[in-house]
Amino acid sequence: MKLRGNGTQGAFCKTLYLLAGAVCIVLLAGGCQKQKEERPSGKAFGQQELLLGLIPEQNIFRQRERYLVLRKYLLDRLGITANFTSLSRYGNIIERFNAEKMDGAFFGSFTYTLAHRQLGVEPLVRPVNLDGTSTYHGYIFVRKDSGIRSTNDMKGKRFAFVEQATTAGYIFPLAYFKASNIPDPQQHLGQSFFAGSHDAAILAVLNREADIGAAKNTIFDQLASENPRIEQELIILATSGVVPQNCLAVRKDLDPVLKAELKRVLLEMDKTPEGAEVLRKFGARGFVETTDRDYAYLYTLTAQVGIDLNTYRYKNK
Fold first, then answer.
1. Which of 38, 102, 123, 237 has the fewest CB neighbours in a 10 Å radius?
2. Beta bridge partners of 104
3. Based on the number of CB atoms within 10 Å of its own CB, is 309 exposed (0-12), middle (13-18) or buried (19 or more)?
4. What is the mean pLDDT of residues 168-177?
5. What is the pLDDT of residue 57?
């Protein structure tokens, strides 16, 4: 037997549909709210900001502009504001890390080994260069018309180092001279000075302010792509082994959850359209995990030149 609907039954069914729809909306809204609440935030980590140091491997204004593109991405993904502080000199990273209570820094390879031994910082990630590498090496270079082709030719000449806390700009040249049975380059050279950054050391040789220079290959190659004079007028005499590109390392007592999330977000940047755009502006393909084992070559190099990383102290000249 078929039942015929009437006005009362229709109204009742309509009411049921409306109630069911309202329940679905509430459930969906609740699910979205739950998803939103589960998204990492500064409150979840117990801090609203990250203070990260930047070493002056190149002009500090250009360096700072490059890293600031990461700020919005980290805020969107972690709910934390990343503040960057630029260091005027490589060598004051240890003192300023403590004094300013930094959460981490993008350390150069040698400054990382110092901070790891003296402060216990833990490496997380490092950028992958546009050419697919995540390492760099040091160059020692001269002008082509200088007539300098060996350490013997460097006697009495002027050398532009970068800083006493750089692998390419100081530690590698020390090892280079020691391999030629010159334990004290200062006595062998006529004069030397610290340019303060890799690009400054390169330009010092290019502009005849120094006869020999040392710098990392990534900055040398970058400047060469912008200034044809570098390839036309300079020649590379020696190349070091590889060390990790500038690594983000954090204080050992940083919240473990924040540490893990920061690492995850940076490692997965290249998987999202937003992250890929940030990386394009940053000048990298992505980030890769970094461990202390990646610095084995540098630990060997510092031992060869007689540097004790646990006690190394110096004053920039």
1. 38
2. 52, 250
3. middle
4. 97
5. 65
Cross-strand bridge partners of residue 54? 86, 106
The residue-averaged pLDDT of 224-240 equals 97
In angstroms, the CA 161 to CA 207 distance is 15
Computed over every residue of the chain, the mean pLDDT equals 86
Taking Cα atoms as reference points, which of 288, 305, 286 lies closest to residue 240? 305
Element containing residue 275 per DSSP (H, E): helix 273-282
Measured distance CA(58)–CA(115) in Å, rounded: 20
Q: What is the dihedral of CA 177, 165, 230, 220, to 10 degrees?
A: 110
Measured between alpha carbons, how far is 255 from 212 in angstroms, rounded to an integer? 45
Residue 8 predicted with pLDDT over 50:
no
Decide: 163 and 92 in contact? Cβ < 8 Å: no
Helix (H, G, I), strand (E, B), or coil: what is residue 287?
A: strand
One-letter amino acid at 228 equals P
* Per-residue model confidence (pLDDT) at position 43: 57
Identify the CA nearest to 55 among candidates 249, 224, 228: 249
20 or 44, which is more confident: 44
pLDDT over 80 at 120, yes or no: yes
Calculate the alpha carbon distances from 67 to 62, 76, 200 in Å.
9, 16, 20
Give how far the C-alpha of residue 180 lies from the chain's centroid of Cα atoms, to the nearest Å.
33
Closest CA relative to residue 265, chosen from 83, 63, 125, 107? 125
d(CA 110, CA 115): 9
Residue 126 scores a pLDDT above 60: yes
What are the strands, taking DSSP E only, across 155-297? 158-161, 191-194, 212-216, 234-239, 243-244, 247-250, 286-289
Tokens at 18, concatenated? 């409306």
Highest mean pLDDT (candidates 51-55, 64-68, 90-94, 134-138)? 134-138
Distance CA 311, CA 76 (A): 40
